[in-house]
Amino acid sequence: MPSLIDVENLTLKFRTDEGLVTAVENVSFSLQSGEIMGLVGESGSGKSVTAKALMHLNASNSVYGEESRITLHTDGGPVDVLSLKNAADLKVVRGGAISMIFQEPMASFAPSIRIGTQMVEQLQLHSDKSKAQAREIAVEMLDRVGISDPSTRIDQYAFELSGGMRQRAMIAMALSTKPRLLIADEPTTALDVTIQAQVLDLMKDLVKEFGMGIIFITHDLGVVAQTADKVSVMYLGKLIEEGPVREVIRGAKHPYTRGLLAALPRLDDLDAPLTPVPGDIPSPLERPGGCVFNTRCGDVIGDACTATVPLEQWVDPTHRVSCHLYDGKRKSGGA
Amino acid sequence: MSGKALISTEGLSVGYRVGKGPFSKSVLKAVDNVSIKIEKRSFFGLVGESGSGKTTLGRALLNAAPITSGSARYDDGEVSYNLTDIDKAQLADYRKRAQLIFQDPYAALSPRMTVRDIIAEPLEVMKITSGRAETDERVREIAARCRLNLEHLRRFPHAFSGGQRQRISIARALVARPQFIVADESVAALDVSIQADVLNLLKSLQADMGLTFLFISHDLSVVAHTCDYVAVMYLGRLVETAPTRQLFAAPKHPYTKALFSAIPSLDPDDQGRAQRLEGEIPSPTNQPTGCKFHTRCPHATDLCRSQEPVMEAVQPAHEVACHRWRELA
Question: Is the model's pLDDT at B274 over the cut of 70?
Fold first, then answer.
């Protein structure tokens, strides 16, 4: 079975006054239908830029690498996302086969237009449903995501809903066109833990029901552990480790992934000291040579790390990591 | 608690008049009948969902929210102020002793001021130092404690990352040498990798400078790792207070238990959905009768719906406001 979406050698630079800034470099991954991929990394690691590239949604000053290829497999055959130019062609990746939900639902809904009107508008844009039919679907979706009294709520404005309700409405809107791929960019970060738990449960149920793929962008490894099937860790535009969620969380290979896990306050051991990843993520204008993580890495093994870019190593058939610790450059000792 | 209280409140309430027209009588009680003691040199955590009144309580203790009833007292051994009856001169002095660290280090720092000026501003505004040389010395001293060097002081905030900016905010709050710090969601906007660094810094500053913290957070795992004592709020009320370890080992209130079970576990195989809370925190303008939590509580009875529970001692220093904590334990 072909995958849902294939990303190959995605490189994305932004043209700025200071020159070309690399936001994403040589990122490749695939996602299957019904699979949830957690995309993890600090602010500035390129998670959101990567996700937006799937919808060809980055700003006009973006320059894609020549070898970058994103292929979306739809019922009508493969779509070469990066070759899509005009708005009519882009519809399929913007709300059609791919939908996106954002971190701050208040900023994603137009404040002066009723929620229902916005949902109907997007449904009509992506299907040939009549207004009445579209409204019916919208009410159904609001009901499905657990909004009580949906036929009243649909005529309300975003400010009349609470934060959790708004995020539910956002999810309802994103799913109303029955997308094959849902991109969720920090969808629960602005919510309370109790509401976050509800929204995460809802999203897991929806994957089972609709069978779509989800790319879940988050910086919270707890959220990833609870939702994702596989994890991709990004740092400064590079995908540095990818593997099944259990393997990555229990047996992280890359020093950065291990650092992220160690920095997390754990409830099962209140005496464990909090260990920050030292230093700050460098500015994309000053990308370090060699391995991009070498300025903060505690396991630097010599010139290799500062001089050569580590190649991807498969530590097992589903788990890959880009680090010199695993490519034989280390002289002795186990990893 | 055994130690001496720096902050103590008795039945503290904060209300805001809401509704239309100047004669509106309806009052929104953001904080309702809260009695707490914050021991000197402690790290006191305050948790609860948005809308639970955490921030308002913090502001009331800084004399920045209208206290409508009850009392709040500050006593650092040198001076003692009654916050509900404080005169202008006392308030000016209290401002030097009690400071706030904000949540968002991107919004809290003026983009037009250098880091040195940002940190020096409280000294100048409160006329603590007499002359530039003294100001500079104080700024450099606190900057060094917060791991900012002389080069950093010359720059503007835009040149800094989130973690560095939060260190600037901390330096600004501490430059007047306060005793009491309200840290309102001070690490919520930071990446985990940086969050640990800022938490460690706060802890070491507390130990070195003998500070007392009110640490407001919605993140229970952060609170578990930093605070000595935790108070859980719901809809303006305290529902449970206890020493951190005791609270995390044996929570008594159904709300506290639900908060704990909602934390996403780092173990992918631990996908328990037990005790998930239904619904959301009710609006404070339209509060439930009886126990405020009964609308979401899986154990609510008629008693819970009609009569409000009072704080009872579970153990010394561990109190809970629930009619049924004994049978549910």
Answer: no
Q: Report CA-CA distances (Å) from B184 to B102, B170, B188.
A: 6, 12, 9
- Per-residue pLDDT for A257 more than 80? yes
How much is the pLDDT for B103?
82
Q: Residue B221 corresponds to which amino acid? A: S
Do residues A181 and A32 touch, judged by C-beta distance below 8 A?
no
CA atoms within 13 A on the CB side of B36: 31
3-class secondary-structure state, position B28: strand
Say yes or no for a CB contact (<8 Å) between B264 and A198. no
Dist CA B6 CA B39 (whole Å): 5
Residue A233's beta-bridge partner residues?
Answer: A40, A241
Q: What is the CA radius of gyration of chain A?
A: 21
Identify the burial level of A81 via C-beta atoms within 10 angstroms of its C-beta, where 0-12 means exposed, 13-18 middle and 19 or more buried. Answer: buried
Residue B202's contacts (CB-CB under 8 Å, 6 or more residues apart) are B170, B183, B186, B213, B215, B226
* β-pair partners for A238: A235
Q: What is the pLDDT of residues B42-59, one digit of tens each?
A: 999 999 888 889 999 999
Nearest CA in chain B to A246: B268
- The CATH number of whichever domain residue B251 belongs to comes to 3.40.50.300
Q: Is the pLDDT of residue A331 over 70?
A: no
Which residues of chain B lie closer than 8 angstroms to A145, CB-CB? Answer: none
pLDDT the model gives residue B275: 66
* pLDDT at position A250: 92
Domain count, chain B: 1
Contacts of B245 in chain A (CB under 8 A): 270
Q: Return d(Cα B276, Cα B258) in angstroms, integer.
A: 6
Residue B306 Cα, gap to closest chain A Cα (Å)? 25
Angle between helices B192-209 and B162-174 (to 10 degrees): 20
Question: Scanning every residue of chain B, which has its alpha carbon at the shortest distance from the alpha carbon of A230?
Answer: B268
B114: left (phi over 0), alpha (psi -120 to 50) or beta: beta
Confirm whether the ipTM is greater than 0.85.
no
Other Cβ atoms closer than 10 A to B174? 21
Range of the domain at B31: 5-328
**Closest residue in chain A to residue B248, using alpha carbons only:** A267
**β-bridge partners, A232:** A39, A242
**Distance in angstroms (rounded) separating the CA atoms of residues A86 and B310:** 65
Comparing alpha-carbon positions, the chain B residue that sits nearest to A225 is B268
Nearest-angstrom CA–CA distance, A171 and A181: 13
Alpha-carbon distances, residue B230 vs A332, B39, B51, B265 (angstroms): 48, 12, 18, 21
* Residue whose pair of structure tokens reads 């809290």 in the numeric block: B108
- Measured between beta carbons, the chain A residues lying within 8 angstroms of B195 are 263, 276
Would you call A225 and B195 a contact, using CB atoms and an 8 Å cutoff? no
Which of A145, A198, A226, A269 to mutate against chain B (most B CBs within 10 Å)? A226
| A27 touches A51 (CB < 8 A) | no
Of A42, A223, A246, the CB nearest to B191: A42
**Closest CB from B194, B199, B263 relative to A193:** B263
The reported pTM is: 0.87
Domain extent listing, chain A? 107-178, 250-326
